[in-house]
Design brief:
heterodimer, A: 294 residues, mainly alpha, B: alpha+beta, Dipeptide-binding Protein, domain 1, 3 domains, 6-stranded mixed beta sheet, transport (chain B)
């Protein structure tokens, strides 16, 4: 009795991705904010990748210290006379790397736990408790503690941020996965195979994928904020430029109030990235589920 | 025992030393300009900005800058210091040696604690003996190595018994040690653990002010003590001193510009000095440096045990750029010698600084059998709470890269940094000392095996013997050549890479004047005599 339904559902789920993707894209193109956000993100990524073409790596020291923005130095110079534009461009590389790596780890780990939890109800109790527990921890002080004890490096920062970002993903994805697992087609799949891995991979994960995509964007924008926060506290990697490090050095040099361009440009970059990510994920979500918002 | 001098040192970023003012009690010889010439406001409140809370009210264990500044206004030192490191009278009027193993201080008579109890030689003897016995983690403990005991032979004379001849004990202990009230500290037991947090009816002071009200994270209010003979007229000028806690130097500068505070106690970041010098209503004072910033190479590491490698590193630092850019030309080269030019009497200007020559570094490394393709790696630690070092650390890294050496920067939160320094967990250490006033004492602490700040782990018999000899030489003319020879050994073998003495700048509102400048950020214009002498003029 359930078989035809299940087959139909499967047929939809197999064929759905390309069709749904095309539909989503068509709807997405009609969201001006979403398109603009995407453009900003693409620009930032291009800037990060093309950093060597855009500016020389800021190293050593420059001639004019704390010079305001001018033709020679678009974003002015810092207290060592280095070009702030170059720092922001090269900082994009580090900031985006941390964002991508940390959110990737958090997403993979978080999604895995979410679908396992949703599928195996007995494990779910444990996972839920761990998630609730982690979510209730004061994250920033803990991140500071860990980063301070281990010592600042890019790897530390990625791991620290990932370690405190996955529960959010798990919680969101799990709630969706739970409803998917209860759908008839998953019951049907259970009749067809005894392998939970196959069912999770083939049916559960694809069903929660849109949500995961939204989470990727949101988690990485949050990762950028956390990384900048840590770097501002001096816990960033001192060997590479990041937006947080520019802010940190401005603060250390006591130049925050006298050289407005030092805090402004890296903050602007962070702001743009976070705003664009949020708008993009909202637009994507709307495009994917048109019924929800209209 | 291990943590003292470094502690104060790290705290105080760098010292400073060229005061134009006389350091003796009264009459500031360099009254600050500005002022507007109005009549002095009587009973004004002097508001001072700091960036840290008081962690410890016990001067023997004090650790943060605020600890030092606030306890210094209550617990007097026996000796003060001049811009060239020469000691000057404070509580003690005379000091010296009776013989090789007996020192003495003659203190002022008629001094009183704020509760009315007279301050006598007994308090001095108690303070020194208690520190020797309990070994609190402050700077003084390190100065007491050859000190055995102190006895009050009269109300104004203390005699010190030494376990071995040591010409440095009397001046150094006199300068670094605070005198505390015996009748308050003794009932509390060990001075290493006594919090002195005023919970038993407040504080007792023999300085110009006494702490009366504490609002953690906000402010520390101190009231004037009427009898303070060390200042002109015997009474401090401002009725109240309020230390206000600010999050960082940026907000302090804003506070000063707005008139919320009268003085910023912390030294200004070098890049901010020019801007503030040109700001109306604000006066910037130069604080002479009396310490140095340096890097040490951990000789317990096999690569750094080789002289050629250390020399290669010394040639790979652009010292001029560091002083010019990071320190905005506010620092003086020491010629890579641990005896800085400010110690005029001891400095040897025939000792020359290592020049920046990456090619020479490469040559030295190649000759020593190393590749210069970046495969030789060292880890440099520094404190993140020290913005100047944080900035030049990147220049050190860039310079070494030119010589084909990779330096990995490890900026650490201050307590982690101190712990790693203590444990020798570093290849290269970058840091600074606020006050290195006495070459013999400092070289003993820095270069003798087992010395508490021997961060290069140097153990050179020739050097050790020179320092030991200098320590027991009481005549300066005989001591000088020994110390200069030792400094040359240190420089030539790169047992230490001393980079500069920084002259600091502090800012105050121009309607305040009369400050007495003393070397180092610890004393600067917030030393007791300066605070007690400052006056506010009526109008601007």
């Amino acid at each position: 009795m359930t078989t035809p339904q299940a087959q139909q559902a499967e047929a939809v789920s197999v064929d759905a991705p390309p069709r749904a993707a095309r539909l989503t894209w068509r709807r997405f193109r009609r969201e001006p904010l979403g398109v603009a956000a995407l453009a900003v993100l693409v620009l930032l990524v291009i800037a990060a990748i093309a950093a060597p073409l855009l500016a020389d790596y800021p190293a050593g020291y420059g001639d004019t210290v704390l010079a305001p923005p001018s033709g020679a130095h678009w974003f002015g110079t810092d207290s060592l006379g280095l070009d702030v534009f170059a720092e922001v461009v090269w900082g994009a590389q580090q900031s985006l790397l941390v964002a991508a790596a940390a959110s990737l780890i958090a997403i993979v780990f978080g999604t895995l736990l979410a679908v396992i939890g949703a599928y195996f109800r007995r494990v779910d109790a444990v996972i839920s408790v761990v998630v609730d527990l982690t979510l209730s921890l004061p994250i920033l002080p803990l991140m500071i503690l860990v980063a301070a004890l281990v010592g600042p490096s890019t790897m530390t920062i990625i791991l620290v941020i990932a370690a405190f970002s996955w529960p959010e993903v798990t919680r969101v994805v799990r709630s969706q996965a739970l409803s998917v697992v209860r759908l008839p087609y998953v019951d049907a799949a259970r009749l067809m195979t005894g392998s939970p891995v196959w069912i999770i991979r083939r049916h559960v994960v694809p069903a929660v994928m849109p949500l995961v995509l939204v989470s990727v964007v949101l988690t990485s924008s949050r990762a950028v904020l956390s990384a900048a926060g840590l770097a501002f506290l001096g816990l960033g990697d001192p060997n590479t430029w990041s937006w947080g490090r520019i802010l940190y050095e401005a603060q250390q040099a006591g130049a925050m109030s006298t050289a407005w361009w030092l805090p402004l440009f890296p903050s602007l970059a962070i702001f743009l990235l976070v705003l664009a990510s949020t708008l993009l994920s909202t637009a994507y979500n709307d495009a994917r589920n048109p019924r929800r918002n209209k | 025992m291990t943590s003292r001098p470094r502690r104060t040192a790290a705290i105080a970023v760098t010292a400073a030393a060229v005061s134009i003012a006389t350091f003796a009690a009264c009459a500031p010889s360099a009254p600050t300009e500005g002022g507007g010439g109005g009549a002095a406001v009587t009973d004004a409140t002097l508001t001072i900005a700091t960036t840290t809370d008081v962690v410890n009210y016990n001067p023997f264990v004090g650790n943060s800058r605020s600890d030092y500044w606030i306890t210094n206004l209550m617990y007097p030192h026996l000796l003060s210091i001049g811009p060239d490191g020469e000691k000057a009278p404070e509580l003690a009027e005379k000091w010296g040696y009776v013989d090789d193993t007996t020192g003495y201080y003659e203190i002022r008579s008629g001094m009183k604690w704020s509760d009315g109890t007279p301050l006598t030689a007994k308090d001095v003897a108690y303070s020194l003996n208690a520190v020797k016995r309990d070994k609190p983690a402050g700077t003084l403990t390190g100065q007491l190595t050859n000190f055995e005991s102190a006895t009050a032979v009269s109300d104004t004379r203390v005699e010190l018994k030494l376990s071995a001849p040591d010409s440095t004990v009397v001046p150094e202990v006199g300068f670094w040690g605070n005198v505390v009230p015996q009748h308050v500290f003794e009932p509390a037991g060990s001075v290493a653990t006594f919090a002195n947090d005023g919970k038993d009816g407040g504080w007792v002071s023999a300085g110009p002010y006494v702490l009366t009200e504490v609002q953690r994270g906000q402010s520390y209010t101190m009231e004037r003590v009427d009898n303070y003979p060390l200042v002109d007229g015997g009474k401090p000028k401002a009725a109240k001193v309020v230390y206000r806690v600010y999050p960082d130097v940026n907000t302090e500068i804003l506070g000063l510009k707005n008139g919320d505070v009268d003085v910023i106690a912390n030294a200004l970041p070098p890049a901010q000095v020019k801007g503030l010098q040109g700001t109306q209503g604000i006066t910037v004072e130069e604080i002479p440096g009396l310490g140095y910033a340096h890097m040490t190479y951990n000789m317990n590491k096999p690569d750094l045990a080789k002289k050629e490698v250390r020399q290669a590193l010394a040639y790979a630092v652009d010292y001029n750029a560091i002083r010019k850019v990071v320190l905005a030309d506010q620092a003086v080269s020491t010629g890579s010698s641990p005896i800085m030019p400010v110690l005029k009497d001891y400095h040897d200007d025939s000792i020359k600084e290592y020049e920046f020559d990456p090619e020479k570094s490469k040559q030295l490394l190649t000759d020593a059998g190393y590749k210069t393709d970046g495969s030789l790696k060292f880890r440099l630690i520094y404190s993140l709470q020290d913005p100047v070092t944080t900035q030049w650390a990147t220049l050190v890294k860039d310079g070494a890269a030119k010589a084909g050496v990779t330096i990995e920067l490890q900026g650490l939160e201050r307590n982690t940094y101190l712990a790693k320094t203590d444990a020798g967990d570093f290849d290269i250490y970058a840091g600074n000392f606020a006050i290195m006033d006495d070459p013999a004492t400092n070289m003993a602490l820095t270069y003798l095996p087992g010395g508490v700040i021997n961060y290069s782990y140097v153990d050179d018999p020739e050097l050790s013997s020179l320092i030991e000899q200098a320590r027991v030489t009481f005549e300066r003319d005989e001591q000088k050549p020994l110390l200069q020879k030792a400094a040359k050994v240190v420089r030539d073998n790169v047992y230490d890479n001393v980079m500069y003495t920084q002259n600091l700048y502090v800012a105050h509102r121009s309607d305040w004047s009369g400050f007495v400048v003393k070397p180092s950020e610890l004393l600067s214009i917030v030393n007791p005599i300066s605070v007690a002498s400052a006056t506010k003029s009526e109008s601007q």
